[in-house]
């Protein structure tokens, strides 16, 4: 498996993703969400008269995190339903047979498609996120304190979800892989909210639900780190009670050990996908 072969498949995957109808759907949903957020932040600005008070900055941080969750959900839907057809769809239609008839390893095909989807999903998150930040800045004057770190964490979340989608697509149909991936994304987020409520209430058993879910599927842990990067750090001290159990505020960023686990999780999931794809009858 050469790097040139992997990059070739990555380029072809990007071109294929750009031609799919799901891309136009993502664009429409993103534009609608950005327009709605522009209206919402203009209302915040008119109500508070500028972000000079702590309450206004708290409101801006919560609304921004809510909108960014919407963008992360759009990215999750897009990557999940792109990953399945990219691999499982080509296997069912027989297209992949024409490629594998040449001296090309299945692992090269898988890695190239994964790399192309990572570039697509990461690019979407960065472009849509920057557009959202500019809208927020123009409408209310608020700017997140760590935009690059937050967008990097959201891009990593997208990479986790598309890796999960690719793994599932090696075993089930394209539609089923997308549905299961999005379902697990939503279930993990709900488990994270439940765990946060458990922490706020001092219930260790309930809090452990969130901790376990973030280990099994690290999408929610990355999302909570992104929320922390988008919100004003001074809010932690001034409005600490507002952070207890709130689904769109986060009191901590991910630790280096957790980020290391995310990288290891992606590698393990890719390895499982490679094994499953190699054993699949085409």
From TrEMBL:
The chain crosses the membrane at residues 21-41, 61-83, 114-136, 148-168, 175-197, 258-277. Keywords: Membrane, Transmembrane, Transmembrane helix. Coiled coil: none annotated. Pfam families: ABC2_membrane_2. PANTHER family: ABC TRANSPORTER PERMEASE, ABC TRANSPORTER PERMEASE PROTEIN NOSY-RELATED. This is ABC-type transport system involved in multi-copper enzyme maturation permease subunit. It comes from Actinocorallia libanotica.
């Amino acid at each position: 498996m050469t790097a040139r072969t992997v990059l070739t498949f990555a380029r072809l995957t990007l071109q294929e993703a750009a031609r799919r109808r799901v891309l136009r759907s993502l664009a429409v949903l993103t534009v609608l969400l950005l327009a709605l957020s522009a209206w919402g932040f203009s209302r915040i600005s008119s109500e508070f008269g500028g972000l000079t008070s702590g309450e206004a900055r708290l409101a801006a941080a919560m609304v921004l995190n809510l909108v960014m969750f919407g963008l992360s959900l759009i990215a999750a839907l897009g990557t999940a339903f792109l990953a399945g057809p990219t691999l499982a769809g080509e296997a069912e239609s027989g297209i992949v047979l024409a490629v594998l008839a040449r001296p090309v390893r299945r692992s090269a095909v898988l890695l190239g498609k994964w790399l192309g989807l990572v570039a697509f999903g990461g690019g979407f998150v960065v472009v849509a996120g920057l557009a959202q930040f500019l809208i927020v800045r123009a409408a209310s004057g608020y700017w997140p304190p760590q935009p690059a770190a937050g967008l990097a964490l959201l891009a990593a979340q997208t990479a986790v979800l598309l890796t999960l989608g690719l793994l599932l697509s090696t075993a089930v149909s394209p539609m089923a892989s997308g549905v299961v991936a999005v379902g697990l994304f939503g279930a993990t987020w709900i488990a994270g909210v439940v765990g946060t409520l458990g922490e706020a209430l001092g219930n260790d058993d309930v809090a452990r639900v969130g901790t376990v879910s973030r280990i099994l599927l690290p999408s929610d842990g990355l999302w909570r780190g992104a929320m922390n990067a988008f919100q004003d750090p001074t809010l932690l001290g001034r409005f600490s009670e507002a952070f207890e159990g709130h689904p769109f505020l986060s009191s901590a960023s991910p630790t280096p050990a957790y980020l290391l686990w995310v990288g290891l999780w992606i590698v393990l999931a890719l390895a499982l996908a490679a094994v499953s794809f190699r054993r699949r009858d085409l």
